[in-house]
Amino acid sequence: MESTQDRVILSREVQAVQIPNGSTVALAQGAEVMITQSLGGTFTVHSMNPPGLFRIANADADALGLTASPEETPQDSSEFCEQLIWDTLKTCYDPEIPVNIVDLGLIYSMQHVAAVDGKTRVEVKMTLTASGCGMGPAIAEDARQKLLTLQGVSEAQVDIVWEPPWTPALISPEGKAKLGIES
User: Which CATH number is 3-64 given?
Assistant: First the structure.
């Protein structure tokens, strides 16, 4: 499911992240929400009480009457490779934009180096579309957690940087097509 407009009644209280400020809010059992996006294992919902947009984790899909989807982190039976890191980062989304963080042009650098334990440490520098977006830490943590699920990765660090400033010119051709932006 990518984009939807399904109205549902929450079957139980759920902790959600308020968009765009990033604070955690409890949405009450019985609250009516509209699912506006379901990408990367999270759900973006619009609520009238409290009003606003919220991000609900995959683990809380049952509160929406849905089944939690299997982790979307790509796995490969072969050895660890750089492409697997990029594929994993492509499963991370800004909850307001239906384009992954790689195609949105938010990833400025990615390195993988040997970790102390002999496995791999992944280091990512990313930015956001707006400096005031409170969702940055949530998006960065989502990316970090998904990287840690990769076989052979024992450490992951995702830092938010502001230089150079993000512009729509950084969006990939695939991302522009998804957003209806002409290249």
Answer: 2.30.30
